[in-house]
Amino acid sequence: MLPEFELLMPRTLSEALEMLTQAREGVAPIAGGTNLVVDMRGGRHRPSVLVNVAGLEELRGIRRENGHVVIGATTTVAELLEEPLIAEAAPVLWSAARVFANPLVRNRATVGGNLADASPAADTAPPLLVLDAEVQLTSKEGSRWVPLDEFFLGVRQTLRQPDELLTAIRFPVPPSGAVGGFYKLGLRKADAISVASVAVVVEVGEDGTCRKARIAMGAVAPRPIRAYEAEKLLEGRVLTPELVAEAAHLCAEATSPIDDIRASAAYRKHVVEVLARRLLSEERR
Ligand SMILES: Cc1cc2nc3c(=O)[nH]c(=O)nc-3n(C[C@H](O)[C@H](O)[C@H](O)COP(=O)(O)OP(=O)(O)OC[C@H]3O[C@@H](n4cnc5c(N)ncnc54)[C@H](O)[C@@H]3O)c2cc1C
After folding, report:
1. pLDDT digits (tens, 9 = 90+) for 83-123
2. Fold classified for 60-172
3. Residue 283 has what pLDDT?
4. CATH of domain 6-51
5. Ligand 1 center from residue 113 Cα (angstroms)
6. How far is the CA of 19 from the centre of ligand 1 (A)?
7. I need a labelling partner for 183 at 20 to 30 A (CA). Which of 1, 35, 99, 275 fits?
8. What is the CATH code for 178-284?
9. Quick check: 134 pLDDT over 70?
């Protein structure tokens, strides 16, 4: 059963920020509610006041701005799929949206909620990490942009302060030569939490050398992580099968997975290595 709570319905962002500041103790923002309501029913989270941010105009929309793609925090996963700018500029994110939950959940689940929840298995996190995304945190005092990689602190822990809202996500528009992909392994083909996921974006020059490599992984550490050593190995070199295999091995080395009901830690490491090798090999073609 849902515990009792007070639901506040702000009409503007500044009203919402004021409500967060006033309530402070036991307050939580709610967007799609696809995590929060489940957690409240399960007794894992007991906020006494919910501030509904889903209807705030200031948090909506996807646009191109000053060389960046900017995504409002309450953009739903379904809206990511419908927006041509995402399919064109960030196919790695579009691919993650396509395998996210099911159509019902995609219609409610927001990108901001997915990141703010900070599950190690959050499916928009690895693609946004390889796109060098930043998140905007806004309080009554003003806004700050934080690299997504610094935003995640641990399981369900982020840099967000209780009086802040995640208001937007942005990433630089990738150059035309950038290619990438996302693979998620679940226990079934649809509506599955990731056993492990990998996102890759590489930029390869005309001479065949890798100019920039970004690799990120989900569900294999207390938070979504980048594979920094593997990225370093690839940059400035031609992506031969041997180099790709070595990089994929470094990806697995960077993980610290757990055994749980979905998979063993050893299997997760193995999956990461296979998925990273596969994605990097595809980008070489
Ligand atoms: C059946 C089912 C299947 C699912 N499948 C997947 C899946 O395949 N992949 C996946 O990654 N997730 C999945 N999820 C989890 C969930 O749907 C996503 O994490 C979703 O993106 C959460 O967004 P939301 O808007 O519903 O967040 P909410 O539940 O509203 O909030 C989640 C958390 O974020 C906070 N929050 C929300 N918005 C903001 C904001 N703007 N600023 C600050 N804090 C905020 C809330 O306080 C809460 O702590 C699934 C959930 C269900 C129920």
Report:
1. 999 999 999 999 999 999 999 999 999 999 999 999 999 99
2. 3.30.465
3. 57
4. 3.30.43
5. 4
6. 21
7. 35
8. 3.30.390.50
9. yes
